[in-house]
Amino acid sequence: MMQSEIHDAVQAQVTMALLAAQKLLAPWATQAAEARHMRVAGNGRADSLTLTIQPDQLLAAVQSLINAGWGYLITITGLDLGPEAGEIEVLYHFAAGAAVVTLCVKVKRETAVVPSVCPIIPSASFFERELSEMLGVTVQNTPNTDRLFLPDNWPAGVYPLRKEFKTEGPQPSDS
């Protein structure tokens, strides 16, 4: 098989996977306009689809991917859009081969709460703990709230990945 044939076959698989995910998630996607497809460019970057989901729809959307056997959870990340925007994006990244689907859940910075996906994907606990510790997002019903990276004496309410965090700011106490 020629390299161009392999590339075309991979592109076809990715396109089919993303279309299947888009169809599965259509009932929960609130901003289909944010969906985007990127073609396999041969640079190692995956093709992706990003859909915005309301926090109360997250578990149903994740369950639909799992029930359909669509890929696996790669990671959960977060993005602080800053005090002016007043929002944090919690991003759930799933992969099936070279296709990546990201579920974007927007929450208010001051009341950042998402449900735990651990009842569906128990291995998500690690990512949820990091999300809470670094961005201050409360993950309801996560099975483990222990700190991962920050020392036990880290000041409460100080989150290193929030926009307002200053590296010369509060430091852990010596006690």
If you had to describe this structure to a student in words, what would you say it looks like?
This protein is of the alpha/beta class and 175 residues long. It is built from 3 helices and 7 strands, in the order αββαββββαβ. Strands 1-2-5-4-3 form a 5-stranded mixed beta sheet. Strands 6-7 form a two-stranded parallel sheet. Strand 3 and strand 4 form a beta hairpin. The radius of gyration is 18 Å and the shape is elongated. The model has no long low-confidence stretch (mean pLDDT 87).
Structural features:
3 helices; 175 residues; 26% strand; alpha/beta
How many distinct beta strands? 7
Poorly predicted ranges: none
Mean pLDDT: 87
Order of helices and strands: HEEHEEEEHE
The gross shape turns out to be elongated
